[in-house]
TrEMBL record:
The protein, known as: Pyridoxal 5'-phosphate synthase subunit PdxT
PROSITE patterns in the record: GATASE_COBBQ (PS51274), GATASE_TYPE_1 (PS51273), PDXT_SNO_1 (PS01236), PDXT_SNO_2 (PS51130)
InterPro entries per record: Class_I_gatase-like (IPR029062), PdxT/SNO (IPR002161), PdxT/SNO_CS (IPR021196)
Annotated source species: Branchiibius cervicis
Record-listed L-glutamine binding positions: G47, E48, S49, R108, I137, R138
Keyword terms of this UniProt record: Glutamine amidotransferase, Hydrolase, Lyase, Pyridoxal phosphate
Similarity-based family: Belongs to the glutaminase PdxT/SNO family.
UniProt GO molecular function: glutaminase activity; pyridoxal 5'-phosphate synthase (glutamine hydrolysing) activity
Complex and partners: In the presence of PdxS, forms a dodecamer of heterodimers. Only shows activity in the heterodimer.
Length: 204
């Protein structure tokens, strides 16, 4: 069975595990360096990116993660997870060290504070059917992307401008929103397909 680990340092780990299981894959928690080697793909959940960043170092996970990601392991980051996958973070802590898996600049807490959290119905490229209910909780937006990054969904921010909130580069997927909390598991199913394709070498 395909195994998609959920990085379990902080954040809403259980919700991702449940969503992945409903998408038909095994979804163990990943906390130790050795566990990084045993997954076919990885989800980095939402939570607090500065905390997860510190814990990645404290748990000795930075190098194993870096190596697997450089080797093309599929990864999906939601919210704080999106921030961690970026190449550049705006409004981050100075010591925050992104994994630089997706060539993009993200702005932390871009939509405002906790009270400015919101929901929107989004059309996401690659996801068929009705628009997705997307939940944004102190979410980042993507400020700019490199040429190999595909923007899958956008929303209009409080500044009146349109901002990417779902992106993909190769085997790496990221969303500003939290699909694990709505019961609509189409993003997890898309990611599970990406992981299966990477296993068989088929394009997805
Ligand atoms: N604002 C948080 C951060 O900077 C992300 C919020 C979330 O993951 N819901 O990490």
């Amino acid at each position: 069975m395909t195994v998609i680990g959920v990085l379990a340092l902080q954040g809403d780990v259980r919700e991702h595990q449940r969503a992945l299981q409903e998408a038909g894959v095994d979804a163990p928690a990943v906390r130790r360096p050795a566990e990084v080697a045993h997954v076919d793909g990885l989800v980095i959940p939402g939570g607090e990116s500065t905390t997860i960043d510190k814990l990645i170092t404290a748990f000795g996970l930075r190098e194993p993660l870096r190596q697997r990601l450089a080797g093309g392991m599929p990864v999906y980051g939601s919210c704080a997870g999106m921030i961690l996958l970026a190449s550049t973070i705006l409004d981050g802590r100075p010591d925050q060290e992104p994994l630089a898996t997706i060539e993009m600049t993200v702005r932390r807490n871009a939509f405002g504070r906790q009270v400015d959290s919101f929901e929107a119905d989004l059309a996401v490229a690659g996801i068929a059917g009705a628009p997705m209910r997307a939940v944004f909780i102190r979410a980042p937006w993507v400020e700019s992307v490199g040429q190999d990054v595909r923007v899958l969904a956008t929303v209009t921010g409080p500044d009146g401008a349109t901002h990417p909130v779902a992106v993909r580069q190769g085997n790496a997927l990221a969303t500003s929103f939290h699909p694990e909390v709505t019961g609509d598991h189409r993003v997890h199913a898309l990611f599970a397909d990406m992981v299966r394709s990477a296993q068989t070498g088929a394009p997805s």
